[in-house]
Amino acid sequence: MARAAWLYHIGGLNQEAVANRLGTTRARVNKMLAEARETGLVSVSIAPGNIGLLEIENTIKARYGLETCICTPPLGWDIRVPETEPLLSKFAFKAVGAAAASHLRAHLNENPDAVVGTGWGRTLEQLTLNFAGVAAPRAKFISLMGSLNANSSYNPYEVVLSLARATGGEGYVMPVPFIADSVEDRQVLLSQRTVRRTLEIARSTTVGYISIGELKENSLLRRQDMVTAQEVSELRLAGAVGDTNGIFFDAEGQAVRHSLNDRTIALGFDDLRKSNMIALVAGASKLTAARGFLKSGVAKGLIVDGDTALLLAEDGAKP
Fold this sequence. Notes:
By secondary structure, the protein is of the alpha/beta class. The protein has helices spanning about 1-10, 15-20, 25-40, 55-65, 90-110, 120-130, 155-165, 185-190, 195-200, 220-225, 230-235, 260-265, 270-275, 285-295, 305-315; strands at about 70, 115-120, 140-145, 170, 205-210, 215, 240-245, 245-250, 275-280, 300-305. The strands form 2 sheets. Strands 1-10-9-5-2-3-4 form a 7-stranded parallel beta sheet, sandwiched between helices. Strands 6-7-8 form a 3-stranded antiparallel beta sheet. β3 (about 140-145), α7 (about 155-165) and β4 form a beta-alpha-beta unit.
């Protein structure tokens, strides 16, 4: 697969020539090239200066007091179309993940001793799949939260290890669950030496990437059974509209009063505000949550798909 990708993308051979060189069929080469993209062996980068949403980016930056805003090109589809539509369901995640990978690549090139904090989710998964081509043996990658129950590629554990493997850097994870069974259990877990050490590293991040989740019955947290249907109802009654890094917040970006926020093992808003946090927003279904979170002042930057960015920019036009 690596040989096929190199001959095609770097060597400039067409698929038939690659097949002849490798002694295989063109159909097999086509499949290997597709797998190379899907697994992250090959990533595509497009110069941001050639993408025309600069005015939208500046509007969002001014509206929410951000230092950085990167918008991917809009697909231009009607936002009322369900995101379960097969052709559209993964577009925003892939677009934002690729843009975040490019942002991280630039940060590592400028900061060889970088400490990179990560959250979890499908957008972070796409970041890892689109990240390649950087050797950063002195960099540290650290999870900003405990691990999930599910063994998946968007688990904080897998995100950190994937980035560490890709760069040759060091990976650190919190060896504790994402949500403790009780407040007392949380205190016991936080008292462990390895957890304290991990949190110390997490507070020293030079850049962090956290995704925003919507508080809906079909949200990823709910589908992974990290929260119950009753807890979702309780959180809504408390005013919650979304979550990030295990913190449930309201429409003004304030953490709501609920036991889940007292049991989460992760860096809280106060610590996150002190770091260079980049919020990743993929999909118009997260618009309400994104609006609320950006009001919190936690994020220094935002990477968002173009269709959702246009809606956020409309907010800025309102008195």
